[in-house]
Design the sequence.
């Protein structure tokens, strides 16, 4: 019995000694590893002058706020008067004149700007504009009115507040005429999908196809007034060389 007990005690002692040796060996390895790592940092030849100096010594990356601000790409607003190269001459003439109109961001109006547009306007052009409340001085919205002819077309270009070719007015009623009064228009887009539209002109609940011939172009704009921002949608139909329809409607008035 004593012999077996001695064997068991020896066996347990052997495993305890082995465990202690392994534990001590691992401890010394970790101790020396971290010790020399820290000492390498202490022996750094470049003198540190605080946390700011640490940031200066880092490579440019996500931790550098200045570099991050330099690398952020700021989107450039699209040119509202850009011509992609396939627009008809009537739209090109209209955009060129609007880009330098008295109510544009870069006003440099020329005497023949309106006349240049009228050369591409049909004698029987159909015009739709919002009903005007000039007396109240609040907005240009309301029920649309329909007009015809070049003379009305010229009147529209020269008088409506949302037209870049009209004289710039104090549209937001802040007591001064400046760039804040300029109407903001988006780039013109050609409408190629959904050219067919339904109109409730065939009786109650009945619609008929009013597909317009020619090419259809559209743009949207905003005019800031004293208490509201008026949003407009402008549709231009070009048939052959001439503008045959010119529709401007107010789609929203946001307080």
Sequence:
């Amino acid at each position: 019995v004593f012999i077996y007990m001695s064997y068991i005690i020896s066996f347990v002692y052997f495993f305890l000694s082995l465990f202690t040796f392994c534990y001590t060996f691992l401890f010394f390895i970790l101790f020396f590893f971290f010790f020399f790592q820290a000492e390498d940092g202490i022996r750094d030849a470049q003198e540190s002058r605080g946390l700011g100096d640490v940031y200066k010594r880092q490579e440019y990356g996500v931790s550098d706020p200045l570099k991050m601000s330099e690398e952020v790409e700021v989107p450039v607003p699209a040119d509202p008067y850009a011509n992609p190269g396939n627009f008809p001459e009537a739209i090109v003439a209209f955009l060129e004149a609007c880009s330098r109109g008295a109510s544009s961001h870069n006003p440099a109006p020329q005497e023949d700007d309106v006349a240049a547009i009228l050369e591409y306007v049909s004698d029987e052009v159909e015009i739709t504009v919002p009903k005007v409340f000039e007396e109240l001085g609040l907005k240009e919205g309301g029920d649309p009115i329909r007009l015809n002819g070049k003379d009305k077309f010229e009147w529209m270009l020269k008088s409506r507040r949302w037209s870049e070719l009209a004289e710039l007015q104090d549209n937001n009623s802040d007591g001064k005429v400046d760039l804040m009064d300029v109407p903001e228009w988006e780039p013109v887009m050609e409408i190629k999908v959904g050219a067919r539209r339904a109109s409730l002109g065939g009786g109650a609940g009945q619609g008929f196809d009013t597909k317009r011939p020619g090419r259809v172009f559209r743009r949207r704009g905003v005019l800031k007034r004293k208490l509201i921002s008026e949003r407009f949608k402008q549709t231009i139909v070009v048939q052959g060389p001439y503008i045959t329809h010119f529709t401007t409607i107010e789609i929203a008035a946001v307080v």
